[in-house]
């Protein structure tokens, strides 16, 4: 080989020996300097760091799983903050709601027709300009036809739909003020045309025949109101806004008068709770709307949330809010009561159409 090449290859071999010896001496020196106590501290610190890191990973994985499992619950949660503009909730296009009407032609409607005359219900539906074609029109085409009187309350008037313009702002923060103004409007213009006055949202389905059956056992001249009764914050409980609620004639009169004599105020933005506190202060009773078997007749969620056992986790707020012990129901079978005996369901526009076409209880 040439001198240059051999010199280049051999140079590291000659210089590496002292460097390796020097490194070994330094390592031995560090080992001698390190006491057992300092090594224990180092080991503990290193182990703790690994432990915290693993805990962080596990917590994140669990949080991700929760987010994947619970959106179906929170989506229609009356205590949540979902947007009214969610396109997944909207049914597009026009439906033929009477397509299956022939299968009910032989039903005995005498009881329902008799109750229609004796138990007069005015229904008013809380809606907004943005929901008329996506939600409110399906209410109008289905269960609202069974009310003795139906009104759609909005922030602005729409003569074509039609809606009553309350001249309020839209949004959750204005729900209670909108509710107050709606009941004031009803009291002023339609007080003598009904015995009971129901407030419902534009994503609610109501079985009016079932509701009339429930109300037929009560006197509308008594100060009472019905709905899904929750227990926190108010001694006698209050009715869930998501499931809708019904005021007797006397309850409506007292509610409207309470804002004239300052017994109630509209300072709160939490509609159902604020209304419940007002009702208690003016001695309007929170009625028991359960059926003879102790099952609820007003429901704040869509049917599958109530029908499928375990669908709502036991740590979900719903179980603690119920005034009466919540009874889980199941898919209808020979030995299981189904949801069709119940009166009120909280649903989106698409499910309202499905409910009506499946031949659910009239209304």
TrEMBL record:
GO MF terms held by the record: glycoprotein-N-acetylgalactosamine 3-beta-galactosyltransferase activity; metal ion binding; nucleotide binding
Domain Fringe-like glycosyltransferase stretches: 122-286
Subcellular location per the Swiss-Prot or TrEMBL entry: Membrane
Segments traversing the membrane: 41-59
Enzyme class, spelled out: transferase
EC code(s) of this entry: 2.4.1.122
Cofactor: Mn(2+)
Entry keyword annotation includes Transport: no
Gene Ontology cellular component terms for the protein in this record: membrane
NAD recorded as keyword: no
Membrane topology of this protein: Single-pass type II membrane protein
Pfam families attached to this UniProt entry: Fringe
Keywords attached to this entry: Disulfide bond, Glycosyltransferase, Manganese, Membrane, Metal-binding, Nucleotide-binding, Signal-anchor, Transferase, Transmembrane, Transmembrane helix
Catalytic activity: an N-acetyl-alpha-D-galactosaminyl derivative + UDP-alpha-D-galactose = a beta-D-galactosyl-(1->3)-N-acetyl-alpha-D-galactosaminyl derivative + UDP + H(+)
GO biological processes: angiogenesis
InterPro entries cross-referenced by the UniProt entry: C1GALT1/C1GALT1_chp1 (IPR026050), Fringe-like_glycosylTrfase (IPR003378)
Pathway named in the protein's UniProt entry: Protein modification; protein glycosylation
Family, per entry: Belongs to the glycosyltransferase 31 family. Beta3-Gal-T subfamily.
Protein name, UniProt field: Glycoprotein-N-acetylgalactosamine 3-beta-galactosyltransferase 1
Organism: Micrurus surinamensis (Surinam coral snake)
């Amino acid at each position: 080989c040439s001198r240059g090449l051999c010199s280049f290859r051999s140079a590291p071999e000659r210089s590496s020996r002292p460097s390796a010896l020097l490194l070994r001496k330094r390592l031995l020196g560090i080992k001698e300097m390190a006491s057992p106590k300092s090594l224990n501290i180092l080991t503990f610190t290193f182990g703790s760091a690994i432990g915290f890191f693993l805990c962080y990973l596990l917590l994140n994985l669990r949080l991700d799983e929760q987010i994947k499992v619970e959106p179906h619950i929170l989506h229609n949660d009356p205590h949540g903050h979902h947007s009214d503009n969610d396109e997944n909730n909207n049914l597009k296009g026009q439906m033929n709601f009477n397509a299956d009407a022939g299968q009910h032609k032989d039903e005995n409607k005498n009881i329902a027709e008799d109750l229609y005359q004796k138990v007069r219900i005015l229904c008013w539906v809380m809606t907004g300009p943005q929901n008329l074609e996506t939600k409110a029109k399906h209410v109008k085409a289905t269960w609202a036809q069974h009310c003795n009187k139906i009104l759609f309350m909005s922030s602005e008037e729409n003569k074509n739909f039609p809606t009553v313009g309350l001249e309020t702002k839209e949004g959750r923060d204005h729900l209670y003020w909108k509710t107050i103004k709606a009941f004031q409007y009803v009291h002023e213009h339609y007080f003598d045309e009904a015995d009971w006055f129901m407030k419902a949202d534009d994503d609610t389905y109501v079985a009016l025949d079932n509701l009339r059956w429930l109300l037929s056992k009560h006197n509308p001249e008594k100060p009472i109101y019905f709905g899904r009764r929750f227990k926190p914050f108010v001694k006698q409980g209050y009715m869930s806004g998501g499931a809708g609620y019904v005021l007797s004639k006397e309850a409506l009169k007292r509610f409207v008068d309470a804002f004239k004599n300052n017994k109630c105020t509209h300072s709160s933005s939490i509609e159902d709770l604020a209304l419940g506190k007002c009702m208690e202060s003016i001695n309007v009773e929170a009625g028991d709307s359960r059926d003879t078997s102790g099952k609820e007749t007003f429901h704040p969620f869509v049917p599958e949330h109530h029908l499928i056992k375990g669908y709502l986790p036991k740590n979900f707020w719903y179980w603690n809010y119920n005034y009466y012990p919540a009874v889980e129901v199941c898919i209808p079978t020979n030995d299981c009561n189904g949801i069709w005996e119940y009166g009120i369901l909280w649903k989106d526009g698409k499910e309202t159409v499905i409910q009506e076409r499946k031949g659910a209880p009239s209304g």
